[in-house]
Write a structure and sequence with these properties.
This protein is α/β, with parallel strands linked by helices and 285 residues long. The chain has 2 domains: 121 residues, Aldehyde Oxidoreductase, domain 3 (Alpha-Beta Complex); 146 residues, TIM Barrel, CATH 3.20.20.70. Helix content is 39%, strand content 20%. The protein has 10 helices and 13 strands. A 7-stranded parallel β-sheet has the order 7-6-12-11-10-9-8. α3 packs antiparallel against α4. The longest helix has 33 residues. One of its GO terms (biological process) is quinolinate catabolic process. It comes from Rubrivivax gelatinosus (strain NBRC 100245 / IL144). Belongs to the NadC/ModD family. This is Putative pyrophosphorylase ModD. InterPro entries: Aldolase_TIM, ModD, NadC/ModD, Nicotinate_pribotase-like_C, Quinolinate_PRibosylTase_N_sf, Quinolinate_PRibosylTrfase_C, Quinolinate_PRibosylTrfase_N.
Length: 285
C-alpha cells in the first residue's frame, strides 16, 4: 500500500521531538552508540501503517525493514518490523512509529471483523466506513479501513450526493422534484437519501432515489422496508447505517441490506505492539 508522504511523516517526528530528545542527550547516549529493535504483535491483528513506521525510522537516521505489509493478518508474537542504527535515531522514531501502527491496526482489525461478520450471513455484501474519522486522520483512517477489507462510504462532502433530513428542512418541494434537480445538477452522481422510517423510505424510493441510507433501522425494520419496496419497478439499494457493528452485521445482511455503513472501526481500541530493544548493530534475525 501507499504511505504518507515524507513531509507529513517528518511533521509527526517533529511533533514528538520538537527540540531534541532531552533524556537521551542528558544520558550522553551519543550517535556512536548503536542498537537494534523489533516490533512484535502481542495478539492476533490485521496490520496497518508498517510502511509509515519503516519510513519514520529511516527519516530519523536509522535503517529499517518492514516485515509485514498493511492488510495482512498475523498471529500473536509475529515480527512486524526490524530497525537498527544510532540509539538517538531509534529513540526519536520509536514511540511515534509504535503508536501509529497500534492505532491504524486497531481500525484495520475492527474493519476486518465487520467484514467477516457480514459474510457470516451467507451473503457477500460490501462494508463501508463513514467519514466520521478523527479530523486530521482521514488518509491513514481510509488506509486502515481498506487494509481490513472494507471500503470508504464517502471521503468528504465534495465526493457524493447524500441528502440528509437536515437538508430537507429547507426544501419546499416533492421528493421527486428534489431527485430530478439533483440529477440535472450532477448527472454522473448516485442520488443517496438518508431516511429514518419505513414510510419515508417508500416515499423517496418512489421518487427515484438510487440508494436509501436507513438510519438506525433495526434489522426487522430493514426487512419490512425491503419487502415493501419489492413491488416497485426499480428498487433502490438499501444501506444499513447507524449502530452497525460486528455484533449485528450478519442480522442486517440477512434482513436484505445491500450495503453496510459503519463508523464503529474508528472507535476500536488500538492493537498492542511490543517493542524490543537490543544493544549492538547486528541485524535482527
Amino acid at each position: 500500500m501507499d504511505r504518507l508522504p515524507d513531509p507529513e511523516l517528518l511533521a509527526l517526528l517533529h511533533d514528538d521531538v520538537p527540540c531534541g530528545d532531552l533524556t537521551t542527550a542528558a544520558l550522553g547516549l551519543a550517535a556512536a552508540a548503536l542498537a537494534r529493535l523489533e516490533f512484535r504483535a502481542r495478539g492476533a491483528m490485521t496490520v496497518c501503517a508498517t510502511e509509515e513506521a519503516e519510513r519514520l525510522f529511516q527519516l530519523a537516521g536509522a535503517t529499517a525493514r518492514r516485515l509485514v505489509p498493511s492488510g495482512r493478518t498475523v498471529a500473536a508474537g509475529e515480527r512486524l518490523l526490524a530497525a537498527q542504527g544510532p540509539v538517538p535515531a531509534l529513540h526519536a522514531a520509536w514511540k511515534t512509529a509504535q503508536t501509529l501502527v497500534e492505532w491504524a491496526s486497531g481500525i484495520a482489525t475492527a474493519s476486518a471483523a465487520l467484514v467477516a461478520a457480514a459474510r457470516d450471513s451467507g451473503r457477500e455484501l460490501p462494508v463501508a466506513c463513514t467519514r466520521k474519522n478523527v479530523p486530521g486522520t482521514k488518509w491513514l483512517s481510509a488506509k486502515a479501513v481498506r487494509a481490513g477489507g472494507a471500503t470508504m462510504h464517502r471521503l468528504g462532502l465534495s465526493e457524493t450526493l447524500l441528502v440528509f433530513p437536515e437538508h430537507r428542512l429547507y426544501l419546499r418541494e416533492a421528493p421527486a422534484a428534489t431527485v430530478a434537480r439533483l440529477r440535472a445538477a450532477e448527472p454522473e452522481k448516485t442520488v443517496v437519501v438518508e431516511v429514518r422510517g419505513v414510510d419515508e423510505a417508500l416515499a423517496w424510493a418512489e421518487a427515484g432515489a438510487d440508494l436509501l441510507q436507513l438510519e438506525k433501522f433495526s434489522p426487522a425494520q430493514l426487512a419490512e422496508c425491503h419487502t415493501r419496496l419489492q413491488s416497485l419497478p426499480r428498487r433502490p439499494r438499501l444501506a444499513a447505517a447507524g449502530g452497525v457493528n460486528a455484533a449485528n452485521a450478519a442480522a442486517y445482511a440477512a434482513a436484505g441490506a445491500d450495503l453496510l455503513v459503519s463508523s464503529a472501526p474508528y472507535s476500536a481500541p488500538p492493537c498492542d505492539v511490543r517493542v524490543e530493544f537490543h544493544p549492538g548493530d547486528a541485524e535482527v534475525a
